[in-house]
Amino acid sequence: MNKPKIVDLTRTAPSSSTIHFLRAEVPSPLSPFVRVYYNYKGHDEKFALRLDVDKQVFLDDLGNKEDDNFIREAAPKIVDQLSKYHTDVS
Fold first, then answer.
1. 18 domain residue, yes or no
2. Mean pLDDT, the chain, whole residue set
C-alpha cells in the first residue's frame, strides 16, 4: 500500500478567525476523497474533515453556520491547491 501524500496548506489555504487548514492527506491520486486536517479555535483537531475532490465539497460540518459556510466556500480553493497531487481533480 502506498503512503499518502501530505500537502501543507498552512500558507496557501484560506483561513478564518476560527479555522486554519493545516494539511491535506491524499491517500491515492485516484481516490475521490482527501482528509483535511485543521486547527479550530486555536486547537489542532484530532480528526480530519473529509473532502470530496470530484464534487469540491466537504462531507462533514462543524455544527456552526458561520464556520460551515466558510468551509463550504474554502473547499473549491483547497481542491485547486491539490490539483497537482490528484489526477481526478476537476
1. yes
2. 91
